[in-house]
Amino acid sequence: MIKRNFLLLMASGQLSREEALECTRCRHACHVMLYSDTKSQLFGKFPIRHIILMQMRFDGLLGFPGGLVDPSKETLEEGLTRELSEELGLPLPISVEDHVESCFAPPSSPPFSSPFSSRLMLHFYVKKIEEEQIREVERVAASTATDHGQEVLGMVRVPLYTMKSGGGLAHFLSHSFIGNARSQLVSSLLRFNMASLEELRKALTRSQEIHS
Ligand code: GTP
Ligand code: MN
Ligand code: MN
Ligand code: MN
Ligand code: MN
Ligand code: MN
After folding, report:
1. DSSP for 59-97?
2. Does residue 44 lie in a domain region?
3. CATH code for the domain of 43
4. If you take atom 31 of ligand 1, which residue's CA is the nearest one?
5. What range does the domain containing 47 cover?
6. ipTM reported for the complex surpasses 0.85
7. Which of 178, 183, 186 to mutate to test the pocket of ligand 1 (most atoms within 8 A of CB)?
8. What is the rounded CA–CA span in Å between residue 105 and residue 113?
9. Residue pLDDT, tens place only, 119-149
């Protein structure tokens, strides 16, 4: 029952790819969570389990790689693949099958919101790749990617574990995220069985206590 309510909460306001594309007046943006399995361990004792890539953006916020796409000129997936080549520095084709959800961007608060700008539609993708590919993305993104040091300050991995001190996922979640990237992360961890509902609830609760 708890799980169902949680999923409903996460699912609120979601649109299919097709429904979202019907908004021809919207600006559209696509972002992707790239991840792999891993057998590596932190300090030889905390299983890392999955490598999940996010980025520190130019504005100091955490987000997923990707960006603005113009559906009148390119498909969503072509646009996302283009953004990845700019931000990560290598081709990583994303396909329709990797689409997870679309929704309107949460309204930005003044002074950033403008009554003249059209609404932003966000499309979210998740793609599992090999651990070696993740490592290659990290190497290239930090060296030859066009946007390195400009739009993208660096790629970061998401710690999924919780240490005795409480360090790990809760601290990561306590940082500031762009748009609804935090909830995209949390709902994907649940959806793709990378964390349990109980772990996520604990980590989210703790993350809210950290700066308060
Ligand atoms: P430019 O090349 O400078 O235009 O940037 P971009 O095309 O890479 O766009 P960006 O990645 O900044 O995404 C466009 C907008 O989408 C942002 O201004 C945010 O409002 C939103 N956004 C960015 N990253 C994320 C993310 O990870 N999740 C969600 N939900 N929204 C995001
Ligand atoms: Mn050390
Ligand atoms: Mn970009
Ligand atoms: Mn971007
Ligand atoms: Mn762009
Ligand atoms: Mn750009």
Report:
1. TS-EE-SEEEE-TTTS-HHHHHHHHHHHHTSS-----GG
2. yes
3. 3.90.79.10
4. 179
5. 10-158
6. yes
7. 178
8. 12
9. 999 999 999 999 999 999 999 999 999 999 9
